[in-house]
Amino acid sequence: MPATLFVVIIATCSVVALSIHAARQRYGPNPLPEGGIPAAEIIYRVEREPWTCHHAPARPYTVEQASRVMQERINCSADDCDAKAAAFRVLVDARRIKPATWSR
Ligand SMILES: [Zn+2]
What we know:
Layout: H1 2-27, H2 39-48, H3 63-72, H4 82-93
Helix pairs in contact: 3-4
The chain binds zinc ion (ZN).
Zinc ion binds next to helix 4.
């Protein structure tokens, strides 16, 4: 019984391996759909995009929205978080907060 099972497993693996080999022979090692972008190119592009943990809004925040964003993004750095930086600017412009280096 174990010998039969072993033969069945080896035969199944052989069929799968031959199918994969035949597919690679026919389509190449990494077939892409028409217009597809290779994974290496996607990784290259993503690694060169500026990183931000939260994106800035398309339109400026209202003062109320900016206040809420500042509370929600309390653990974000304004240097890395475009949303928090945008909220910060709105609150500075509205004179709700003063930057530490601002002496007016
Ligand atoms: Zn953030």
